Description:
Blueprint: H1 2-17, H2 34-40, H3 46-49, E1 61-64, E2 69-73, E3 79-82, H4 84-93, H5 101-104, E4 106-107, E5 115-116, E6 122-130, H6 132-135, H7 145-165, E7 169-175, E8 180-189, E9 191-197, H8 200-203, H9 207-210, E10 222-228, E11 242-243, E12 252-253, E13 262-267, H10 278-309, H11 311-340, H12 343-360, H13 369-395, H14 399-406, H15 408-416, H16 419-432, H17 442-459, H18 473-484, H19 491-499, H20 503-508, H21 510-523, H22 529-553, E14 568-573, E15 578-579, E16 582-583, E17 587-589, H23 590-595, H24 608-616, E18 630-635, E19 647-649, E20 655-662, E21 680-684, H25 685-695, H26 699-704, E22 707-708
Parallel strand pairs: 12-22
Antiparallel strand pairs: 1-2, 1-6, 2-3, 3-10, 4-9, 5-9, 6-8, 7-8, 9-10, 10-11, 13-14, 13-19, 15-16, 17-18, 18-21, 19-20, 20-21
Helix pairs in contact: 4-11, 7-22, 10-11, 10-13, 10-17, 13-17, 13-22, 14-21, 15-16, 17-18
The structure holds arginine.
Arginine (ARG) is lined by residues 85, 204, 207-208, 211-212, 322, 325-326, 641, 644, 661.
Amino acid sequence: MKKTCLLLILFFTTICNLKADEGMWILSLIGKNYNQMKALGFKLTPEDLYNLNQPSLKDAVVALNHGECTAEFVSNQGLLFTNHHCGYDDIQSQSSVYHDYLTNGFCAKNLKEELPIYGKTVSLLESITDVTEKIIPQNADKMSALERQQQIENNIEELSSTYEEQGYYVTIDNFFNGNYYYLSKYKVYKDVRLVFAPPEAIGNFGGETDNWVWPRHSVDFCMFRVYCAPDGSPADYSENNIPFTPKKYLTINASGVKEGDFSMIIGFPGETYRHNSVAEINQTINCDNKCCIEALDLVLKQMKNFMDKNDTIRIQYASKYATLYNTYKYSVGCNKCFETKNIIENKTQLENELTKWINDNNKTEYKNIVNSLKKDYKKDYKNNFYYCNWVYSLYMGCEFIEFGHSLYDYYYNLLLNNQTEIDKSIQKLKTKYHNYFNNYNKKVDYEISSKMLNYYFNKVPKKYWPKGISNVPEFYDDLKTRINNSILTDEKSFNNILEHPSYIAFQQDKLFDLSKEILYATTKMYNSDKFDANFEYHKYLYTKAKQEMLLSKNPDTLLYYDANSTMRLTYGKVCGYKYNNKDMGWYTTFDSFINKKNNNDKEFYVSEKLENLYLSKDYGQYSEPDGTIRVCYLTDNDITGGNSGSGCLNANGQLVGLAFDGNWEAMSSDYMFEPEITRTICVDIRFILFIIDKYSKADNILNELTIVWN
Ligand code: ARG
């Protein structure tokens, strides 16, 4: 009896010490986590996750637009699930006041009705391999920081080009601030079509108010299909293309999740900063985030004003608004967490430990590394402040500037008269900006840009202003004329310059000229290459030292790398959290969804159709035994932006939900994972099926899915 008790205690302490929830792991190296995963309930093997010789789960998971979001195959006909907010831009670009798919949703009843989305790409990972030895030069320690950096960049370019010649899209990514390099090889599919989107009032229920917040009721999903050439290879859109057959697609398990169930998520997390130095984090909080909050607040208020007054503008700007608001609210939440939590104190403590370890062990190669980084950031602060103001007020605030910059390559190739490159630029622009003018309004751009330029002029010294500009009323009159007469603001002129390439036309365009000057203004803010290389080298040493210290203290420590848009896996369990002694629960229901209804507020609008469905209680097989139906649930998985749209998988690798957000109390999770409160918000797959089935009656889609009930 006693013995059993002791064993049980031992068992539970092991589980508690696992801290398995934190970490974004590389799939090909997951073997070292396998025991932890099994202890949490994982039923598959590492080879089921990543296998180069036969289909594995990695083949079912794809990156949208090179890592903007994640999606997963759910049929052998290339059907994908992702988040509504990952398709928002596409749904919106297909919408107008006449067929408003944002408001009403979209459902293709057959392949013919699916809507091609120009510019959308789907990347399938073939393999990820450690290429550190090929990238960091052998004699790197004898080189200057600048030489080292240049050699690394050359090696990256050389190695990538070998694979690119073979038709792959390749990224060589830096891990642990340049301590390791991994090469990811992708096939990129470009014929992607919209299949299904719920109405915005369902897919984005709660809107910006609920964004980043739990409890949540957004049914954040939509569906695309990947098409390929008849031989299965990637191809540009064509009527002759056929639905793509993936090596692997996910089975859906609709039996529901329980608290404590094993949960894993495979996706493409974008960026985290867990290993950053305190100096860098301080700069992010006090400079980057503050600039972002102040400038975007101004941009968003103006945009909203225009949107509220005019339905066409509302649709045109819906996606831009949501994207900017998401960034803005992220920074607000992040800084709030830094104000109220001891994150900086914790990290400073670790840095003090590091300095002590370096000194105690006489690690001369790392001597003064913490201080060197501090000095670097101090030196960089002002320039970073100007640059951040440039980014948030001009680049993000003024549409013509961002658009102007995207034409810069084309302009430059025209200047060099390089025909091959000119053709490539035209192709790129045609695909990427296919729908640009549908969502552009000169007046909105002029009004917001003139405010934001004025804002910038007040923040940043004259030497960083675009050439020949002064902050006087005449400049704003002139800006209006420039906006009214430009390739950047008129669809016909833009198409014309793609059909009839002309360097002169660019040269004569005064708005393009302004956008160019604005870009040049930033080059004056940059420090020298030498400064940058030293900076990078210090970060490299800092992270190297930290890693060495942690491993020397405990050789069994499992270290994971910060997110960098490479494919990762996070595992943990379904679980809720407590905040300020309040139980926040771990799932939401249709009842609490309907309780939030407020038809005077667009964000909480519930249509009659949905409400009738609620009242009918006709939830089919998707309900709980007690007759309720669940909408969202929580896990302690470790995700970040880019993971959006990732499937939440059960112990058998079956799809049980879609990850779509994080919670407000843990907005600083990109810097520090707090096991007690950092949570991933997922939509329950059963509510998604309920919408497809009972709300949209999309039997064609339902029949294509493989659904199991146990
Ligand atoms: N916070 C989510 C993310 O960054 C995006 C949610 C989109 N919804 C919205 N209402 N803006 O992935």
